[in-house]
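User: My advisor asked me to double-check a structure prediction for Transcription termination factor MTERF15, mitochondrial before group meeting. I don't want to rely on an old file, so could you generate it fresh from this sequence?
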Amino acid sequence: MGVRVSTNLPLRRILYECLQIPSFPTQRIGSFSRHLAHHRLIQSASSPNPHFSQHISIAGLLLRYGFPQCQLHEFIRKNRFLINTSPSDVEKCIGILLSFGLNQNSLVSILSSCPRTLELEFLRKWQVGFSELGLQNLSPSFVQKTLERCAKLTTEPDDLQRSVRVMKNLNFSDKAIFRVLEEVPLAIIKNSFDFGCKIDLLKGVGLKNDEVSRICHLFPGFLSHNLNARLKPLFGDLQDLNFRPDEVRKALLNSPKLLLSMEVGELSRCLDLLNSMKCRLPIKKKILRNGQLSACIEVKLRVDCLCRHGLIHRDAFKVLFIEPRVLIYDLEDIEKKIDFLLCKLDLCIEHLVEFPDYLGVNLEKQIIPRLNVIEHLISIGGLGFDVGMKHLVRLSRLKFYNLFVKPYPECENIFGGLVREAKPQHPTGMWKLFRPQKFLDTKEDVKNMKQFMESLV
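Assistant: Sure, here is a fresh prediction for Transcription termination factor MTERF15, mitochondrial from the sequence you gave:
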């Protein structure tokens, strides 16, 4: 899939600059013969390089396959092995790389990060190594990351094959093997004992082989965690905090990254927050509806969200302790409220520590209508005092109406209509329930009543 690239500089000029002419120190000429020899040496050094046309061909190949012209000079200068490489070998190397399904951007990335892929012997060795893995449908991204990593860590195809055998012995699926090899260094996978102990921790909570494979595919990063310093203390906390194995298994299947990425002691801190929070019973039931471990993961999600916007962990836990309703709102809703606080209200994130109840109210129904009223009153000069966060969050709807909306009738449409006090409704009286049914009088009934009255006279 060659791509023609228009060049601004002549190709010969680019290649000529890459060839460094050796410099000779200035010496005192002792004789005429030495002067002639020195002259011939300089003349031969300044003569055209016999490999110059070969370099032009290699540079033309690289440009044709999309290699940036601005990087070509530096690339050839650094990789002097190209002097002894024929253009046909370079073209064969590019053909092998393209046979893996790489696109132009991936090809340029591999050539830049691992120039040895232009060595035919090196690339054929990896081509054989990939074919002997016994895996179906090698993805281009897997090939690219493997070749780029081998340049940094000097890994060999034997290391890759040994790692694949370790995972196959643990019944990993091909999909999980590709994912792990792309994300986890081979040195970690080659240590079969340490790698197997990490898998045994997952199986210890009742996970089956296919479920372990699925978790490793979703979050292979946990395999890079230290076994004794990170993973064993985490699973020890799960056992010490009396979480049921089926609850742990369910949490690992639903959100493996959130649970396995917890730091030591973070889980117990989340559980302490849940046990100490004070809120209405319906809210607490809603928070704990999926179990305590799932609620701990929800706490971690919201703490990470607040810390990502600038709060420290202590203040983030304080916000959740004062306003537990944050745990029943979706993360998208919380992000939307924080963006509104920072961008629209032009306040800093630390205001949430003073007004955590801002995250517990409805943005569209409470905050935005009140802000629209305040902005309208400011525009007409109807405010005689400063309006702060407490007026938007902590005033009841009726108090806000009486204070800001009632004196200005035009604000009623902005606020959302007139707020009226609900009239007390008493229960229906017994006389209404037992009142006899009323029937209409017919002509025959009227005639009978008249005859009855006449008989009395």
